[in-house]
């Protein structure tokens, strides 16, 4: 897949100390190369390091990357046939390159966020109904 995958768990204390220093305007240096941190880059690096310190796997994929159906299914955590069904039902935009479907990472993440939002809404509805029925939620 076109992206970087990081999976090792990093020492929490070392990461915490490094994250505290990742602030906009600071300069990162590696030998002769240097990079001034913008607010967005500082936040991105802090989030990345936080996830790694918790032992979470992290994949970095450019938003404009075009993913195969296999790659897109892997990112969503679903089977390829299920993803293809979502595509065919129009729930996630895609286009074809020859006979192969391609999904933009941006569209996949938008679907994932909308799906999570809908899940939270449904859970809130269920909790409300349970409270109305006096089920102790």
TrEMBL record:
InterPro entries to which the protein is assigned, alphabetical: DNA-bd_dom_put_sf, HTH_17, SinI_DNA-bd
Protein name (database record): Excisionase domain protein
Domain Helix-turn-helix: 67-114
GO molecular function, one term: DNA binding
Provenance organism: Thermus thermophilus (strain ATCC 27634 / DSM 579 / HB8)
NCBIfam families in the cross-refs: excise
Bilayer-spanning residue ranges: none
Top-rank taxon: Bacteria
């Amino acid at each position: 897949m076109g992206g970087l995958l990081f999976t090792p768990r990093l020492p929490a204390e070392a990461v915490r100390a490094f994250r505290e220093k990742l602030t906009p305007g600071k300069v990162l240096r590696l030998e002769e190369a240097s990079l001034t941190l913008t607010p967005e880059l500082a936040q991105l690096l802090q989030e990345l390091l936080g996830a790694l310190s918790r032992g979470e796997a992290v994949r970095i994929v450019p938003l404009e990357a075009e993913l195969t159906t296999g790659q897109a299914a892997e990112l969503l955590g679903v089977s390829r046939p299920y993803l293809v069904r979502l595509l065919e039902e129009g729930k996630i935009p895609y286009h074809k390159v020859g006979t192969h479907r391609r999904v933009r990472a941006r569209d996949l993440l938008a679907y994932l966020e909308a799906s999570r939002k809908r899940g939270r809404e449904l859970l809130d509805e269920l909790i409300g109904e349970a409270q109305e029925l006096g089920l102790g939620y």
